[in-house]
Design a protein that fits this description.
- It is built from seven helices and four strands, in the order ααααβααβββα.
- The protein is an alpha+beta fold and 168 residues long.
- A hairpin with a 2-residue loop joins β3 and β4.
- The structure holds FE2/S2 (inorganic) cluster.
- FE2/S2 (inorganic) cluster (FES) binds next to α5.
- The site of FE2/S2 (inorganic) cluster (FES) has 12 residues, from α5.
Length: 168
């Protein structure tokens, strides 16, 4: 279960975000840059931040959710430490990326777009990452794994988990 958003723990980020909102308030097309800033600042769009922003901008919250759900760059849950994406662009898709993503879901016990219970792994939706000749491509926090196969899933997760143990 993801930790609940805390205004106190995020005080610095909140302060930065409020400055962004103040800078954009009243300007045309403000919603997108404000949401992008929230996503970067908090790593996701906390419900409390969306509610606060809607009041501040005097905009219905449904409008914020409307924009945020339309673009895959936004997420409503904190992401895991390792963001795994199985490219779903055309070249990867024809090389079995959809099945590969399902295999990752099974291995992690989560849905695409979800985060594992321990908060370590998120499966992030991605379209072409520009390495089509290496399809299917998996990336972990931006590091590419070319010609990825189902057999590599367990060793990869094991390697990332053991890196965690060593970090402790
Ligand atoms: S479609 Fe996957 S890298 Fe281009």
């Amino acid at each position: 279960m993801a930790a609940e958003f805390s205004w106190e723990a995020q005080a610095c980020n909140v302060e930065h975000f409020k400055e962004t909102v103040a800078a954009w308030k009243g300007r045309k097309g403000a919603l997108m840059p404000i949401l992008q800033d929230a996503q970067i600042t908090f790593g996701y769009l906390p419900r409390q931040i969306l509610e606060w922003t809607a009041k501040e901008l005097n905009t219905p919250i449904a409008e914020l959710y409307g924009v945020a759900t339309f673009y895959s760059q936004f997420s409503f849950e904190p992401l895991g430490k390792y963001n795994i994406s199985v490219c779903q662009g055309t070249a990867c898709y024809v090389k079995g990326a959809e099945k590969l993503q399902d295999d990752f879901c099974d291995a992690l016990g989560i849905e695409a777009g979800g985060t594992s219970e321990d908060g370590l792994f998120s499966l992030v939706e991605t379209r072409c990452v520009g390495e089509c000749s290496l399809a299917p491509v998996v990336s972990v926090n931006g590091e590419m794994y070319p010609h990825f196969t189902k057999k590599q899933i367990k060793p990869l997760l094991k390697k990332l988990r053991s890196a965690e143990v060593m970090d402790d």
